[in-house]
Give the backbone structure.
Amino acid sequence: MTSTGSTRAEIVVDLGAIRHNVRRLRELVGPGVAMMTVVKADGYGHGMVEAARAARQGGADWLGVATLDEALDLRAAGDTGPVLCWLAVPGEDYALAVAAGIDVTAYTVEELDEIAACGPSARVQLKVDTGLSRGGAVRADWDDVFGHAARLEQAGRLDVTGIWSHFVASDEPDHPANDAQEAAFREAVALAEKMGMRPELRHLANSAAAVLRPSARFNLVRCGIASYGLDPAPGHTPDLGLVPAMTLRARLAMSKPISAGDGVSYGHTWVADRDTTVGLVPAGYADGIPRAASNIATVWSAGRLRPIRGRVCMDQFVIDLDGDLPPAGTEVVLFGPGDRGEPTAQDWADALDTITYEIVTRVGGRLVTTHVDEEQS
Ligand SMILES: *Cc1c(COP(=O)(O)O)cnc(C)c1O
């Protein structure tokens, strides 16, 4: 995309923060538990290749992605380490992934056959559904799927390298599904072993479970959100010293006075109750700023929090500067680590009744992403 060199609005990603967070999570889970950093969805909006590199530097043994294409993009960028992907549809080209030494996931007998057809070096992890009712083999199919996998493995047609599942509510540590799922997963592992498989990896925990549920760590944890410094279980997580890696910022396009009674932005959903000043922020819903943030979210500029006034538009929105007139070009921080008093992605998520995952993955559009690397203490 053409860039005139001025930073109208940008996503700044601190790779040092990702490296630090992965290190912290590794220390927390301790030796004997491998660390998978999940870098799907463009590294949760942080840039997949750059995030992956920082994660490897921080000690990620594995990288996790959803799609085969994401896994192949990691290889094309030069990553040669262990990678797992877990979301394919029939007819996808497993051969490319197998040739690239990527672990793929199977839910069904049919998938196992498709994968086995790609050559004897195929590395497959079996996913079991322990209650999420999303991907994975349901309990009634475990005998068939495991039996088929064991036969293919004994025939030298593939390697079963792992067995895994995914939590329903690991961010709610008291949710009854957690115990039930962990028990079901233990049964699945025992059944796989009874059928003659010795999958090297057994894994169930995402970030929240890795932090809050030591019994669910098995020998690998899959950490996404916490690797980016965001709280995996708001209200439950102890202070881990994680550092949010993403800052979203812009430069004021204009600031100006308006009078009491003046309406702001489309539909005049906000009308000034006093003479005030407003600033124009050149980023909008086409850049992933939620339109639902209209009149709700707050940004930081010229030393203070500043509320969004009126509707967020496609390319721009207006903030209340409360009498201040910072010049055009002044920095506006929509969210960041919070250390200068700016809102965090968690503040935006709370204001918008969503989760930080959605906030950081949705921003993009015309925003430029700049990677920096600050050493974290
Ligand atoms: C996205 C994802 C993760 C990472 O979850 P976080 O809550 O971000 O740590 C782990 N496992 C699977 C299967 C996922 O899809």
Notes: The pocket of pyridoxal-5'-phosphate is lined by residues 38, 40, 86, 166, 206-208, 222-225, 232 (CB under 6 Å). The two ends are 35 Å apart (CA to CA). The chain has a mean pLDDT of 96.
